[in-house]
Amino acid sequence: MIAFFPEIYPDELLYSQLARYHAHSGYMIYRSTAEDLFMNPTVRPEIDFVNRLSLDALNNITRTVSIESIIEKHTMFAYYGRFLNQDRRNSAFRAMVSMQGNYNNLLPMPKRKKDNDRFLRYCPICADNDRQKFGEAYWHRIHQMQGINICPVHHCQLKDSSVIISGKASPALTTAEEVITTFEPVMCDNEIECRLATYIMKVFQSDVDLNNDVLVGDFLYSRMSNTKYRSIRGEQRNISLFHADFTEYYKGLPDNWFTELWQIQKVLANDRINIVEICMLAMFLNISVDDLCNMTLPQKSQQQLFDEEIDRLHEQGVDYAEIADRLNASIHTVKCISQGRYGTYHKQKSQPLKSGAKVKDWHEIDRYNLPLVQSAIQSLQGNGTKRPKRITVAAIEKMVNLRPKQLDNMPMCKAEIQRHTISQEEYWAIEVVWGVNKLIQDSIPVNWKHLRELTNMRKDNLSACMGYLSRYADNDVMAMVKEILA
Ligand SMILES: [Zn+2]
Q: Is residue 323 included in any domain, yes or no?
């Protein structure tokens, strides 16, 4: 029976409130508290989300706020779930409100490498302030945003606590007050990193509209209208220019993984919904936090508006040359549109990727996709530190969102891929060189055991690739590999 239950603080994780209950309860062991709080007292407390609470706990927690608002404002739901499509967003939210279901399946949680544990983090300045204001420190949600490593309020480096979020730790409820030590904050002077952290925090803390049915990729794409990244009538995008400007804008951002053209393309195609990536695109496009959190699509496309403007001016008696001048278009285009010929001639260009087999203008599609294919190839090749992957037609198709057989109509893209396609043996040679260099870089002894662990290769794979090795390895690496094989 719960006698006293602490109030929840602003932006506090539900886990943190439960941990403070445990500290105040006087129980000596976790199990006693768990019997008060959870339906299943042997459960490991969820740190990002919520466990099935006992009726007693639920009543206490929802004394002044609804369970819906606990989920939205005191768990990480809004961080991972906000940009899901409407159906998935709603099922994830419902699962959380009813405290059932596997949230890791319902929400797109970033995959973590093995042995790469995540800890609850804190900001020393926030902790100091909390101690002055509330008499104790607590765990904040805004310090647990994966992909952001500074406090979005104070712009100092976040510090890992000893409380492990992922996997193995035995069940416990640990308050911030117990484990946070005071220390001098390390300030971040990287302007773009600070701005991005603050932007993402504001998005995270905004209300989630469960009924909004706009897909975030469509929204971002619509906000490229009337920029230099889409042609005057909006039907073509200049994605290479966008990519170049975008990477330039974020070039100072540390640990930035969102740099590839095909990754951007996937967000715009509604295939990736990482909140950090979405916010990077939105901030670059000057989209306000408010607009991003209340996404609407224009009633009419840029193309429709453009065509209507031509009709309007034409009806007013403005001549074609003058219209072309005012709208910054060619007189030929204006004439064609006005006389209804442009549509029939160009219609199939408007959605080159989606209209699939019906599209006739394969040359245009081929040209459009070439930079995407090149970027995907480059990404698979790795960069020395990143592990190289084997370039195959299937891998590229997946990254660039092409359907099987589409490449048959795209000679430029196909040739580009073929030029980079190599045999399995040659790929092993590249992998071996990468592996040896990685071991050297990490100061790990270069021997068969370590190389095998890194590459998953078998010894016969290693001998099979020897013929190609000299293409990729310098003399030192060659000698080391021969040593291993000897
Ligand atoms: Zn702070």
A: no
Same domain, 223 and 172: no
Q: Are residues 359 and 434 in the same domain?
A: no
123 CA from centroid of ligand 1 (Å) = 5
Cα end-to-end distance, the chain, whole Å: 70
Interval between CA 354 and ligand 1 midpoint (Å):
45
Decide if 73 is inside a domain.
Answer: yes
**Which residue range is the domain that position 51 belongs to?**
14-179
Please tell me the distance between residue 185's alpha carbon and the centre of ligand 1 in angstroms. 9
| Mean pLDDT across 385-409 | 84
* Distances 203 to 68, 171, 282 between C-alpha atoms, Å: 18, 32, 11
Task: Give yes or no for residue 371 having a pLDDT over 70.
Answer: yes
- Please, which pLDDT band fits residue 401 given cuts at 50, 70 and 90? confident
Q: Note if the pTM is more than 0.85.
A: no
Indicate whether 334 pLDDT > 50.
yes
Same domain, yes or no, for 71 and 170?
A: yes
Q: Are residues 159 and 225 in the same domain?
A: no
Work out how many domains the chain is built from and give that number.
Answer: 4
Measured CA to CA, the distance from residue 133 to residue 312 in angstroms comes to: 62
On the question of pLDDT at 72 being above 70, the answer is yes
The residues, any chain, with a CB within 8 Å of residue 270's CB and separated by 6 or more, are: 85, 215, 216, 217, 218
Looking at the structure, do residues 173 and 24 belong to the same domain, yes or no?
yes
C-alpha 178 – ligand 1 centre gap (Å): 18
Q: What separation in Å is there between the alpha carbon of 431 and the centre of ligand 1?
A: 43
Percent of the chain scoring above 90 in pLDDT: 50
